[in-house]
Design goal:
Chain lengths: 307, 354
């Protein structure tokens, strides 16, 4: 048991949680303006792939991340246009975008790198790990918090920023109002359409970062469908956290912990198939314990909920 | 008026197909290949000869069955995104039944078909029950259960039921006895009796939705849940039944693949081609009409088999098919022809509210 639960497990939890947290925060913003974004999975995948492409061709990590963000923002512009202006069902659009992301990344993988399945370049550098100056020296806390990529710190910082934005600023209140009652917000002369666009584009930005962390954060590689349901887990994290930044962070940490634990458990005599199930089983179990009706209404507004 | 409505109903998917092909052309152009040549190869690969045509129908078989299942759930107003898991569990149950049940071949065959249907159906009904009893969002549970089902089936064929006879260490069950195989429809071709099952299922589902009382309840529940409740339709009962049939059809899709094509359960052989997702797309394309779903299933399968021909004969990769499919679905979800027109009209008369 001691082998299983040590401090480095918590350290890897924080690393694992970052893509989920970033995407879930993006999803939460969309949810707050009344759009249920099922396309998170596809957005992260595009981000992961374009980060690798950017890194390969520019050799600069910063440009790679910017390129990933740019690609995903463009991609989410498509989501915004089709759902907001063409009034398509956002669940269907989200699902279609996931398909499109899978198809496009695999297609591009074949045409750009001429490989099937995965692209790995040992010369390519991943995101640097930052050792925190003072915190890093504190024994327990330091082991957990130090030595992560800048995106990890950014993600956790964003939780605070988003919380302040949503609940302490006027513009944040407007955003909440747009999601609460679209028609009422409109009748007050708010630029609802612009708010919705803004939320979706920021969601794209966050998913781009999530993808970059996924493909450049640990090992610098891209493999087909490497998101493996993280976008959907982020969706659940968003629902469990009730689109509240700190709630989302808590829920994401739970899943990150399971993710890290499932990898750790593979060292034991439990069949890997069962350890890999853990995050998904836990997600369903978590829905069971933390279920709340508010997200159901949200999903229903999208027309895709089950009731 | 009716012909006008029908024209609109058909115009819409056709327009989406055009946009999809246009996006495909763009992708081909980016790769630097000839668009016309590639599309000619696509056509040849899908319908070029009787052999290729039967290949397309073979690939369409599981897609149609899954599509029908999803269509029924859609009709009742539920998103069943768990077809993949349901299919995999159906396939592995059918394979194990065919392998280990004693008795003559035809008994095993029927038992395997039933087992496949039931395994898929029960896995699906579990998600339905979680929704009905504990209000867990069906969209998410069905999705997550895919991963669990695939991993569980993977475990079954890597540990207890692994084929140890061959030299290759593939994760698969032993070969099923050939008395339990679904017969081929033409000798030397891949098309098997599973296709007939799929077509029969499409017709049965069409008749059921159109003229049975259960079909009526499904439709009302899907169109207007409050009216359904007012009319005394028991939501939970209709939901569980439609989830059972929905998942069962997905399970059957896996079953006919095992009994008609592969003759064993091979880990990943059903998930890798993405049958489940193509089935879902077929449903979306056909707007949940059972016969339309069958036609859309054949169309999407043709894109996939055609793309294999494209990959054999040109520089364009196979994945062109998934790009075309995804764009197609994206634009079928947009009621663009119609809503554009409607919105313009609305603006003229009394401004826009929504």
């Amino acid at each position: 048991m001691e082998q299983l639960l040590d401090l480095s497990l918590l350290n890897s939890t924080i690393r694992m949680v970052t893509p989920i947290l970033l995407a879930a925060l993006g999803g939460a913003l969309c949810a707050r303006v009344g759009l249920f974004n099922v396309g998170l999975e596809g957005l992260i995948l595009i981000g992961a792939f374009s980060a690798i492409v950017g890194n390969h061709f520019t050799g600069s990590l910063l440009l790679a991340i910017l390129f990933a963000v740019l690609c995903v923002v463009l991609f989410s512009l498509l989501f915004a246009y089709i759902t907001i202006d063409l009034k398509a069902n956002e669940i269907v659009v989200g699902i279609a975008l996931n398909f499109l992301a899978t198809g496009l990344t695999t297609f591009a993988l074949r045409t750009i790198f001429d490989v099937k399945g995965a692209f790995y370049d040992k010369n390519m550098e991943g995101l640097p790990s930052i050792d925190l100056p003072i915190m890093g020296d504190v024994p327990v806390v330091g082991t957990i918090l130090s030595g992560h990529s800048p995106l990890v710190y950014l993600a956790f910082g964003l939780v605070f920023v988003l919380h302040i934005y949503l609940f302490k600023t006027v513009s944040g209140f407007r955003l909440l109002a747009a999601g609460e009652n679209l028609t009422a917000a409109k009748s007050l002369g708010m630029k609802v359409r612009r708010t919705q666009y803004g939320a979706i584009l920021v969601c794209g930005l966050l998913c781009g970062l999530a993808g970059a962390q996924l493909s450049l954060g640990q090992v610098t590689m891209f493999s087909e469908g490497m998101t493996a349901g993280r976008g959907f887990i982020a969706l659940v994290a968003m629902m469990l956290g009730q689109s509240n930044p700190f709630g989302v962070m808590g829920a994401s940490l739970l899943f990150g912990f399971m993710d890290a634990l499932s990898i750790r458990l593979q060292g034991f005599s439990i069949p890997t198939h069962f350890t890999l199930m853990l995050p998904y089983v836990m997600t369903i179990a978590a829905m069971f314990f933390f279920r709340d009706k508010s997200y159901l209404q949200l999903a229903q507004r999208g027309g895709g909920g089950s009731r | 008026m009716r012909t006008k409505e029908l024209a609109f109903a058909l115009l819409h998917p056709l327009l989406a197909v055009c946009v999809g092909l246009l996006a495909g052309a763009l992708a081909i152009w980016v790769v630097g290949a000839s668009v016309i040549e590639t599309y000619a190869e696509l056509w040849k690969g899908a319908f070029g000869s009787f052999y290729f045509f039967t290949n397309t129908l073979t690939r369409a078989t599981p897609i149609i069955l899954i599509g029908l299942g999803v269509a029924l759930a859609f009709r009742a107003g539920f998103f069943n995104l768990g077809a993949e898991g349901q299919m995999v569990l159906g396939a592995v149950s059918a394979a194990l039944t065919a392998l280990y049940l004693p008795g003559p071949g035809w008994v095993k065959l029927i038992a395997a078909l039933l087992a496949g249907f039931l395994a898929g159906g029960l896995w699906s009904i579990l998600a339905g029950w979680l929704d009905a009893a504990f209000r867990l969002n069906l969209l998410i549970t069905t999705l997550l259960m895919n991963y669990i089902a695939a991993l569980f089936a993977g475990y079954l064929v890597t540990e207890p039921f692994k084929d140890t006879s061959g030299s290759a260490a593939m994760a698969q069950t032993p070969m099923i006895d050939n008395t339990v195989w679904l017969p081929k429809l033409f000798s030397g071709m891949s098309l098997h009796a599973g296709f007939l099952i799929a077509v029969t299922a499409a017709i049965l589902l069409y008749l059921m939705i159109r003229s049975s009382s259960f079909g009526y309840e499904v439709r009302v529940l899907g169109y207007n849940p409050s009216f359904a409740a007012y009319g005394g339709i028991r939501r939970t009962r209709v939901m569980l039944w439609s989830m059972l049939i929905s998942g069962g059809l997905a399970g059957l899709a896996g079953t006919v693949e095992v009994l008609g094509m592969q003759y064993r359960y091979i880990d990943g052989a059903l998930t890798a081609p993405g049958y489940a997702w193509t089935g879902l797309m077929a449903t979306l394309l056909a707007n949940s009409h059972p016969l339309g779903t069958a036609a859309a299933g054949i169309l999407l399968a043709a894109l996939e088999t055609g793309a294999m021909g494209v990959e054999r004969n040109t520089e364009v990769p196979l994945e062109i098919a998934s790009v075309i499919q995804a764009v197609l679905i994206l634009f079928v979800s947009v009621k663009f022809s119609y809503s554009f027109w409607k919105r313009k009209k609305g603006r003229g008369s009394h401004g826009t509210t929504a």
